[in-house]
Input
Amino acid sequence: MTTSSTPPTVTDYLTGNRIPDVGAESHRQAVLRFLVEEKGYAREALWVDAPIHVMIADTPYHAKIDLIVKAGEPLAPCMAFKCCAGSLGSREREILAAARIFDATPIPWCVVSDGRDAIVLETATGQAVAQGLAALPSPLEAARQLADAPSAPYPKERVEREKLIFRTYDKDNVNIIRPGDKT
Output
């Protein structure tokens, strides 16, 4: 029996390049296709593997957010996605934490999706506000929602806790390529 250390590949929807089909990559590809072909997002509005860098107890932690969708003029982050296989609910807390700590102000909405279904959460409250891929806003709807979204920083006293939550979930992710990994 021979084994191969090279993972299978899939054609990336956005670039056309062959990429490793590890983790939930096939689910992310389905989400990308849906956002472009069904919802009308421009490819430039989709940020794959957005780097997230945080300091936790004076130690840097580097990870990636599966997908950030941008809307408005100029383009600004409006939705952060966690693409996963299995139970969507089991990854809600991870993407909530990531959306809350990604930048100086939280990304207003976050989504967990397996490419067939989705749960949309309001980042500020953590409450589910919609379900299903069809419930995802179009670029125009997202731009309108983004203009009305709160733009205040996440409460400073809660940021450190969100960093710990994100890191805990992120370290549980398997079959992924982390920043700094050799491919």
